[in-house]
Write a structure and sequence with these properties.
32% helix; transport; 6-stranded mixed beta sheet; ABC_Transporter_VariousFunc; Alpha-Beta Plaits; ABC transporter ATP-binding protein; 4-stranded antiparallel beta sheet; binds adenosine-5'-triphosphate; 14 strands; alpha/beta; elongated
Amino acid sequence: MIKFENVSKSFEDADALENVNLTINKGSIYGLLGSNGAGKTTLLKLLSGIYIEDQGSVTINDQSVYENTMIKDQLFFIPDHPYFLSQYTITHMGQFYKNIYSNWNEERFQNLIKAFQIDPKRKLHRFSKGLQRQCAFILGLSTMPELLILDEPMDGLDPVVRKNIKSLIIEDVAEREMTVLISSHNLREVEDICDYVGILHKGNMLIEKELDDLKSDVHKIQLAFKDGSPADIFKGLKLLHSEKRGSVLLCIVRGNEADIRTRVKEYEPVIFDILPLTLEEIFIYEMEDVGYAIKNILD
Ligand SMILES: Nc1ncnc2c1ncn2[C@@H]1O[C@H](COP(=O)(O)OP(=O)(O)OP(=O)(O)O)[C@@H](O)[C@H]1O
């Protein structure tokens, strides 16, 4: 299990993370969302052992991550700009990682090079951004990591490659319980593979939730009453948003569906529907609740 407990990290002129708590269960795919400068990369680098926390603790299975070679052998970090040794081909990089990672899988490496049709003789720095990223995935997955850490992984990949890479990730999660942490500022990019989502904003973790919980916890309700809407109808429940559309009141309410039904029925509405919410809507309303427009992580 991965745990961040009250983690803070500052740089000379910026507090990148403040008292962040985060838990990631084994075999989970965790989407870390946040706008530019929210602190995502800093969090990923702390988990990769590249940075040391100023305060709090970052642990994997109760062991501190920083300078822990045993843990580093089990994780692979693909940064937003993958780094390769100068003049190296993918074969050279494979040799390099083979000497570092104890679980290196040569057969898988060769198969992936073929599947992605990568020229093994071509220098990596001559590849396009998208191809370099594919090579980083091939190398990362060949280390057979327990934990795969991805910073904006789909940037520059075409839809077919995205789909293939997502399938490979899901396969590893299903077959050998690999854990994955994916950062993105685009919810749509990760919502189909993540089972858990956390939102960082200005160094603070705003929401951390299982996607299914998030979906079952927030409701869109359409209401109309004979004599206008009763003012206290949602008293005691968490009203995230409401708007009038003619005589119909549209509300977004957080809470237990049965409680909401019981409460609303007491007021004898003439229209009462509970409608499904998209994940995107849930995030917009949840974030409205904490006073921040989340638009830019949804575009
Ligand atoms: N090496 C560094 N030196 C100084 N400040 C840094 C460093 N790394 C990050 N920061 C600062 O920490 C804050 C968080 O940055 P970080 O890169 O973690 O955010 P991010 O969510 O990954 O952003 P983006 O989506 O734009 O990549 C920013 O204010 C940034 O300027």
